Amino acid sequence: MTCPARPVLRRPRRARPGAQPGRLRRFLRQQRGSATIEFAMFVPVFLLILFAGVETGVMTARQTMLERGMETAMRALRLGQLQPVTLDTLRESVCSDIILLPDCEQSLLIELRRLDPENVALPAGNAPCVNRSEETQPAITLTPGVEHDLVLVRVCAIIDPLFPSTGPSLGLPLDDSGGFRMTTASVYVNEPR
Known about the structure:
alpha+beta; three-stranded antiparallel sheet; 15% strand; rod-shaped
């Protein structure tokens, strides 16, 4: 004859006031919401990479347009097609094809300087830029030269970053107004007439 199975006796747990036994354990074992954790961890990193890529692309396009606008204007200048030679006509000529530089004519500074071909001494430092936080602007040299003169052209524009908190923008030296400088330079010889 077999004995009936004895019931397993468990010691009763003390229930915390207001809590059900095993509720915490069940909560920790659940898998609902696990995708939310991954989303919260990876989406900011993904968006940072995306915005940094867009910022880098726009900066490259702006730099290319600035260089192209300067080269086109300098070609017209050295061939004598740009008359009269003033800072305003040069700015208009450089900015005419640039579409990605907002307020191009107000943020652009152009320097023309005649160089001695026998003893070329390039100016030290960066090209002078517009100071947007002050009304006065740096004194610049405008010497387009005559036939066969060697002329240095330096162009500087102050640009605001699209996303100031992304990687490329964080590595740029910013001025007092929060913009960064974008410069280009070229040397040409005036054509004979």
